[in-house]
Amino acid sequence: MIRQFGPADILFIIEAVRWTLLLSVIAFVGGAVGGLIVALARSSDSIALRRISAVFIRIFQGTPLLMQLFLFYFGLAVLNLPINPLLAAAVALTFHASAYLGEIWRGSIQAVPTGQLEAATALSLSYRDRMQSVILPQAARIGVAPTVGFLVQLIKGTSLTSIIGFTELTRAGQIVNNATFDPFVVFGLVAVIYFLICWPLSLYARRLEARMRRAFTR
Amino acid sequence: MYHFNFTPVFDNFYLLLYGAWLTVRLSFVAMILGLVVSVLGAVARTSRYKILRGLVGAYVEIIRNTPFLIQIFFLFFGLPAVGIALNPNVAALVALVINVGAYGTEITRAGIESVPHGQVEAGRALGLEPVQIFRYVVLKPALRNVYPAMTSQFIYLMLTSSVVSTISANDLASAGADLNAKTFASFEIYLVITAMYLVLSLLFSGLFRLVQHTLFNYPASR
Questions:
Q1: Is A199 close to B79, i.e. CB distance below 8 A?
Q2: Would you tell me which CATH number, out of the four given (1.10.1740.10, 3.40.50.300, 1.10.3720.10, 1.10.10.10), belongs to the domain A7-217?
Q3: What residues does the ABC transmembrane type-1 domain cover (chain B) (predicted)?
């Protein structure tokens, strides 16, 4: 039965935003932990660690997020776990984000002037102290703009979890569209909501980037 | 214990290979058209007409801040409501071009702005026509400067193109979905397809390196 698109539908779509945000937060936090490990491995002295982390990044940056979601989703069955879209989505997006953030932060770590590392080593600081007190604080400043930029990509990426059946913003839009058959309005509204979430972040990232550029050309 | 069964995948491997070819063709056409949109967009974005700059700016911001999945839904399901019905393959190509065009516009604009103005003046002093100045003095060095960013955007486009399977356009991902519906060897199918996408992205980055060596094989000016 086709019904008219009404306030209840708008409310249903808006309420689904929390799942998009929750998934983004989970993936971003998980990805931050994973990304830090990947970045440290990628810029470590051990050839084996560098190779393994490079392959990890290659795989997750060289394959579609949609396929990664399918693999983790059907992979649950392989591990004899119950099918759970939220779990599959959260794990897949965490790995995805780990690869991207790992690569971004590797770049930030390597952008810190080598003199800093040499000075820290000359002071005979341990690896932990070198990283924690000398390299990472400076790398964090360099990496914050592209990190916010990636967060936008990650939030947009959560829309693909609708395809494995997780009911977030996009899936809510599909459900409403199936009942009202008013795709122009429904997907228009969903697009506006994504835009309102992502655009401020994009602007913020650009401002950070401009500030960074000024700081470095001084 | 799960029993892996790759037989249905490799018995029908030709279907997946054909799907991979469709993905290559779709991405390649989208890259070429996307490059055209990017250059036109960047020219408009740096033009002296404020309205034009504003319009292209809005296009870039809207596309870059909404998911591709929603864009393609809007194009494929939404536009028929206002009388524009596209078949899935056309909608897929249009959506990909519009999407990559927005990112490409920003990348190309950054490239154009990186060309020193003295270079344009030198071109003028040599008596080049405005079109020649744009083609040889501005665009080529601009694209050379942003080549890595542009090509990684193109590879990302190829990966994103898997999403067109949701509107049943023909590509590698939808070949996989068809095979999955027939054989139910889901994990095995998607494992193989994911590996195929990885191979495609390696092939594309190899191709882009080759193009770089032939097109931009001259020493940097600075």
A1: no
A2: 1.10.3720.10
A3: 20-208
Could you state, in chain order, the average pLDDT of each consecutive group of 10 residues for chain B (222 residues)?
Answer: 84 94 97 97 94 96 97 93 90 97 96 92 93 92 94 97 95 94 92 97 96 85 54
* Residue B65 to residue A183, Cβ atoms within 8 A: no
User: Contacts of residue A63 in chain B, CB cutoff 8 Å?
Assistant: 159, 194, 197-198, 201
For the entire predicted model, the pTM comes to 0.93
First to last CA, chain B: 62
pLDDT classification of A1: cutoffs 50, 70, 90? low
* Domain-embedded: residue B2: no
> Shortest CB distance from B64 goes to which of A184, A191, A202?
A202
Chains A & B: contacts with CB separation below 8 Å: 115
Q: Which ipTM did the prediction report? A: 0.93
Question: Is B163 within 8 Å of A66 when comparing Cβ atoms?
Answer: yes
CA distances from residue B99 to B28, B31, B51, B163, B168 in whole angstroms, order as listed: 14, 11, 21, 12, 18
Spatial contact of B34 and B104, defined as CB atoms under 8 Å apart: yes
Find the CATH number of the domain harbouring B197.
1.10.3720.10
For residue B1, is it within any domain?
A: no
- Do the domain assignments include residue B220? no
Please report the sign of the dihedral spanned by the C-alpha atoms of residue B121, residue B125, residue B126, residue B127: positive
